[in-house]
Amino acid sequence: MSSEGPADRREESHKATVAPGGGGEGNGAASAAAAAVRVGNFSDRRLRLNPNKDHKPESYADVRSDLDPGIYSALERHLPPSMLELPKDVKFQFMREILSKYLPEGERNRVQKHKEYRQKISEKYKPLHKEIYNMHPSSFFVPSFLEAINENTEESFRSIISEPSPGIYTFQMLQPKICDMLLSEVENFEKWVHEARFRIMRPNTMNKYGAVLDDFGLEPMLDKLMDEFVCPLSKVFFNNVGGSSLDSHHGFVVEYGQNRDLELGFHVDDSEVTLNVCLGKQFTGGELFFRGVRCDRHVNSEYQPEESYDYSHVPGQALLHRGRHRHGARATTSGHRVNLLMWCRSSVFREIKKYQKDFSSWCGECLREKKERQRQAVNAMRKLERVLTMSIQDDSVTSGKKSGNAFDDLPMFNAENLQSNLKIINYRCIWGWLDAAIMEFSVGFFMLEGMWEAGKELRKKDIEV
Description:
alpha+beta; four-stranded antiparallel sheet; globular; disordered C terminus; oxidoreductase activity, acting on paired donors, with incorporation or reduction of molecular oxygen
């Protein structure tokens, strides 16, 4: 599949189903039917791997959808070129059909309930620090990080980033006062939840403590954080796992310590790229341990010694890694540790990944299997070398000639000169076979000549008698 040009057609065409309540420009039954036909004509198209930066996407703020309108605008840049000039409702239905694969009916109901949950919070909860809801970069980030982002080059990023282990990047990011504000905002929200007897939704199935930042109004701030400050980094360091096409996120805080979660089991994140920032407070323990990047097929495979790395949290310091980088958290033995996490996702990468079979560019086990196949191929070629050499030597000895010396100048075999060596062997084998054939023909000719002369002598004797 081409990464730049028009997307290839699939071998089989699948009829698209238009979900009710699509929104957009057409609202009538006829319009919906026409949209279904038009979408069906393009349902065999694949998304582009890299976005079309020259295309200006439309706004989908007026459509009815369970997903953020920004997801559709971001995804539109990945549409096949033949679809970019189509009406908005056709593009919307096409993208919705793709995204619906990740949102089955039960999940859609859950999303709807979640929207109602957020609406109740926004109507009743009063923020404590309004300045963190509207990000001002100069007050949010440390100067070194902000300067590197403004320069927006790999060299500027590497000047502030450490890579203590392959694929794990650490750097100073948030100002101390922002960390304190975020901590007090989370505490204020949890206090309000307790007093209002409001049932809080936890960040994920593994953490029993913490809160989803998107739920109480911080989603726009986190959108900006991902788009303007995480994406530039992920495009450079995680381009092979969708880092250049991040279009959604899940932002939350987790809490560890006494009367909270103590540790976190071995797992992978539901993200392409994960940002993890320690907000504080005072604590001991809680180190993260990493054990290699894996695809779905190898997620439970063993790790190699070089893939083992332990990381100790520092307040204000950020950690950036692939979501598929397996990790866990050791017990926080004392104090209270709070971390802000943002799971950054790419719907484009997830769609394209379904058609891929080789993940050796980022999965450690796939890469090892690929190297093992290459090693076996090299061993097979070396074995072929020995068999051919022995065969040539045996033919040379059998011929009784000195043709065996003709192979003394044959170069040593290796992966680079195998093809040329095989040609040499082939030519010299042919020459040896021709040489033997000529010799056998000569012997046969002399035998026939002798038999002919003997026959002539017998005929003379018969005549004389």
